Amino acid sequence: MLNIQQYAAIWDVDGTLVDTAELHFNAWERLCRELGRPFSRADFAATFGKRNPEIFLQLFGPVFSAARIDELGARKEDYYKDAARAGVALLPGARRLLLELHAAGFRQAIGSSAPRGNVDLILKLTETEGLFQAISSAEDTTRGKPDPQVFLVAAERLQVAPANCVVFEDAVAGVEAARAGGMKCVAVSFVGHHPADKLRAAGADLVVPTLEKISVADVQRLYSSTSPPL
Asked: Are residues 127 and 213 in the same domain?
C-alpha cells in the first residue's frame, strides 16, 4: 500500500495542462519580424519547450548579450501574456485529474521551461493555483530540458524523492528529462506536437491521447513493476 504523502505529480504546462502553442508561435513570429528575421513553423517545432536563452541562440546565433536576450525575451513574453489574457482553458481531463490527485493526497508541482510570470498567469486564468505546492520555472534553472534540472528542483521543493515522482509531459525532451531525473512519466499526445511512438521511444511509461484516459489508480500502478501499459 502506497503512502501517498511520499509521492508527487510534476506537471509541464504548455501542451500538457493547456494548449498555448499558437499564442507562443504568434509572439515569436511578431518578435522575429521586428528583428528582421522570419520565424517559420519549422523554427517553432525545433525550439518549442526550450528556455528563451537557448531559443535566441538557436535562432540568431551568439549575437545578443545576456542583457539583450533578457530584454527581448521579456518583450516576447509580454506579447504572449497579452494574448493569453483573452482566454486559456485547461485541456480535456486536466482539471478532473488535478483535483483527484489532490484529493488522494499526492503533492503536486509545476516543472516548466516557461518564465515564472507565464506560469503564474496560466494558473490564475485556469483557477488552479491552490492545487500546487511548488513551482519550478525558467528562473530556477540554468539548463533546459532534456536536462532534468527543472523537475529535480520541483521534487526538492516538494520534499519528495525523484523516484517517487511522476511527470506529466507532452514533449520528447520533457519525457527524456523525466527519465534522466529517475522519475516516472506519463506522456499526453493530444496537442500533436510529438507522435505517440516518439514519446514511447523517449521512455514514457504511459502514453495516452488525453488526460481523460488517466486515473489516480493508473498513476499509483506506475510504481508497480507489474503494471500493464496503457
From this structure: yes
